[in-house]
Amino acid sequence: MNNGTMDATKIFGSNVFNDKTMKERLPKETYQALRETIERGAPMILEVANVVANAMKDWAIEKGATHYTHWFQPLTGKTAEKHDSFISPTPEGSVIMEFSGKQLIKGEPDASSFPSGGLRATFEARGYTAWDCTSPAFLKEDAAGNLTLTIPTAFCSYTGEALDKKTPLLRSMEAVSKHALRVLKALGDKTSRRVFPTMGPEQEYFLIDKKYYDQRLDLITSGRTLFGAPAPKGQELEDQYFGAIKDRISKFMKDLDTELWKMGVSAKTKHNEVAPAQFEMAPVFTSVNIATDHNQLVMESMQKVALRHDLVCLLHEKPYAGVNGSGKHNNWSLMTDDGTNLLDPGHTPHDNEQFLLFLSALIMAVDKHADKLRAGAANPGNDLRLGANEAPPAIISIFLGEELTEILMNLAKGKKAQSRGESCLNIGVDTLPELPKDNTDRNRTSPFAFTGNKFEFRMVPSSASISGPNVVLNTIVAEALDEVAARLEKAKDINKEAAAIVKDVAGKHSRVIFNGNNYAEGWVAEAKRRGLPNIKSTVEALGYMANESAVKLFTKYKVLTKEELHSRYEIYLEQYAKHINIEALAAMDMVRRLYIPSVIMYTAELAETVSKLKAVSASASVQKNLLTRISELLESASKKLDVLDAVLKKAQSVHEALHRAEAYRDKVFPAMGELRKDIDALETLAPARLWPVPSYAEMLFKL
Ligand code: ADP
Ligand code: MG
C-alpha cells in the first residue's frame, strides 16, 4: 500500500464477516434467522448454523484463509486460540475444504491447562467452546499475511460452568437488559425489545525501544521495571500530554489503525499521554460484548505491531516508578435497540423522568456495591496505581457535577428544581436545565464520573480484560433497575412513584457522590466519615467478589454461581501470588547476576585507584569516600537480598491460597521495595559505562 493513500472506508471491516457480508452471502431466511438470534437471543438452529458455516468458510477461503479457530477468553485474562484447517481428506488422496455448522457452534479444545479453580478436574479436561454469534467472526492476519478465520466463543465446562470471561459478561447483559426493559415498559415504552450496555474503552500504553527492553529481565518477565533510579526529567513539564506525535510513533499508530480497522475495530482517537513514552487509543463505543472482544484485539495488535517497528508495547499498569501509570477508561451507558441512550438527559419532562430514574439506579448500584466494583478493577499492577496520587484513588465515589447534584439534592429535600419554562411537571421536576454541552472540563480525579451521557469508570487496569468490571457494573445496575421496576409496576401513579424513587435514592445514597478533588488529602478521612469503603489491595478486594453479598447478588441475576465465584476467587489469588513470585525471582536474578557483579567491578577499580594514589602519596579521599559509600550500599543490598530470599521461600511454602497471597503482599512485596532502594542509590553513584541495564532516561526518552 502506498503511504498516504490508504482508503479507510475500503479497509474498515474488510476482514470481518459483518452484517453487510452476511446479507450478501446468506439466503434471506438464513440471514433473518441469524439476526433474530443476534438481536433477540432466539435459539440457534443447526440448519441455520450449517448454512452460515459454509458461507463463512467460502468467504474466508476466497480471502486466503486455510484455517479457523474458536477464539476464547480463559481466566488468564488473555485470549486463546487453537487452529484447525478446513481440509478433509477424500478416499482418492486429495482434500476438500469443509466447515460444518457443528464445527461452527461447538469446539473442544484440549484445554486442560487453563485455570479452572477446581471447577473441572484435569482428568475430565475438556471444556468446550460455544459460538457467540453476537460478536462477528473475522480474519486475523499475521505479519506474513496468513489469515485465520477467528470465531468468538464462550468457554464452558461440560457441566455448563463458565471457565472464561465472556460467559458471565453475556449473562450480565441479559440481566441488565431484562430489568431495564421492565422499567421502560412501566414508563410506557412500547417499542424497545432489548437494552444493551454500550462501552468505549480508552486504552493507555507505553512504548519502549526494543533494544532497551531486551536488556531488562524485569520488563521481559514482569512487564514493569523492578529497579531504576528516576531520570532527571519526568512528566513535570507537562510537555508530553497531547504533544506532537513523533514520526516513529506516528508510523506505528498508522500501522495499528490499519490492523484494527481491517478487523472492524473502530480505532478513533490517538494521542500522547501524560507520562513520557505513554500513549492512548480510544475506539468508538459499541456493545460491551463486542467492545470487550475488540479491546483484546487492541492489546494484542499493539504488541504485535510495535515489534514490527522495533518497539515493545508495555500494557502494565505501572511500568515505571515515579511517572503516571496506565489504565483504561471504561465509558459505559445503556442503549435501547432503537438507539436511545438511557443516560442522555433529553429535552422533555418524560425523557427527564426516565433519565433521572436510570441515573438514580446507577447511583444506588454504585453505592451499594462499591466493594464489588473495586474488586472488578483489581490486579497486581493496579495496586501500584490506585491511591498513589495519579490514577483515581481506591475509594469509589461518583462525580455528577454541581448542577445534577443540586437537582438531586433538591428532590431529596422535596424541593422543586429550578424551573426553566412552563412545561408540565412529571415528577416534581421541570425540564432539567440544559446540561452544559461541554462536560469535558470535568473532574479528572474521580473514579466514576458522569460525563454528560455516560459514566466513565476510570479504575480499570490497562492490561486486564474489561470483562470483569463490566460484569460487575451490568449486574449491580440490573439489581437496582429490578428494584426500580418492582416499585413502578406496583404503583398507582407512576409519576409520583418515580419522584419518590429519585427522592429515596438521593436521600439514601448521596454519600457516594463527591464532586471535589479525589486526590486531596482530606478526601480519605471524609470518605471514611461517610462510610465509603477504601479497599487498598487486590488481595483484600478479591474477597468482596466471593463473600455472602456477592454470592447473593450474582446468583440472583444468574451471572455467576457460588462455585464459579469461588473458583474465580481462588484463581485470582493464585495469580496474584504467582505474579509477585515472578517479580521477586526476576529481582533477585538481576541483583545477583547483574547489579552486584557490576558494583563489585567498580569497587575493584576504585580500590586499585586508591592504592595507586597512595603509592605516590597523593590524596585519595574522594575515591575512598565513594568506595566506602558504595561498599556500604552493596553490603546493605546483599543483606536485603538475603531477606527477600528468605521471605520468598516462606511465602512459597504457605499452602492456603489467601494466606499465601497475603504473605506475598505483606512480606515479599515490601522486601523487593527495600532492595530496590539500595540498587537505585547505587545506580546514581556508579559510572554509566558499568551499569548493566538501560536507565530510566534511556527507556523513557530515547524513543
Ligand atoms: P474523553 O474526553 O474521556 O476522551 P470522549 O468523548 O473522547 O471522552 O469519549 C471517550 C470514549 O467514550 C470513546 O470511546 C467514546 O466512543 C465513548 N463513548 C461515547 N459515548 C458513549 C456511550 N453512550 N456509551 C459508551 N461509551 C461512549
Ligand atoms: Mg476519558
Describe the protein's architecture and organization.
The chain is α+β, with helices and mostly antiparallel strands. It folds into four domains: 8-164, Ubiquitin-like (UB roll) (Roll); 184-202 and 328-560, no CATH class; 204-226 and 235-326, Glutamine synthetase/guanido kinase, catalytic domain (Creatine Kinase, Chain A, domain 2, 2-Layer Sandwich), CATH 3.30.590; 576-701, Up-down Bundle (Four Helix Bundle (Hemerythrin (Met), subunit A)). It is 49% helix and 13% strand. The chain has helices at 8-11, 19-25, 28-40, 46-63, 101-105, 166-186, 210-213, 217-222, 247-262, 288-308, 349-368, 370-376, 380-383, 402-412, 467-490, 494-509, 521-530, 538-542, 548-556, 562-615, 621-653, 657-685, 696-701, and strands at 67-71, 83-85, 87-89, 95-97, 106-107, 128-131, 138-141, 147-156, 195-209, 267-272, 278-283, 286-287, 311-314, 327-336, 398-399, 448-450, 455-461. The strands form three sheets. Strands 9, 10, 11, 12, 13, 14, 15, 16 and 17 form a nine-stranded mixed beta sheet that branches. Strands 1, 2, 5, 6, 7 and 8 form a six-stranded mixed beta sheet that branches. The chain has a two-stranded antiparallel ribbon with strand order 3-4. Helix 20 runs parallel beside helix 22 (657-685). The longest helix is centred in the last third of the chain and has 54 residues, at 562-615. The two termini are 26 Å apart. It binds adenosine-5'-diphosphate and magnesium ion. Magnesium ion is lined by residues 202, 329, 456. Magnesium ion binds next to loops.
Q: Tell me which ligands are bound.
A: adenosine-5'-diphosphate, magnesium ion
Q: How many whole angstroms does the radius of gyration measure?
A: 28 Å
Secondary structure class reads alpha+beta
Secondary structure tally, helices: 23
Q: What's the pLDDT, averaged over the residues?
A: 91
What spatial form do the alpha-carbon principal axes imply?
globular
Strand content: 5-15%
User: What level of helicity do the residues show?
Assistant: 40-55%
Distance between the termini: 26 Å
The total of beta strands comes to: 17
Contiguous runs where pLDDT drops below 50 for at least 5 residues: 419-425
Overall structural domain count: 4
Report the oligomer: single chain
Major β-sheet annotation: 9 strands, mixed
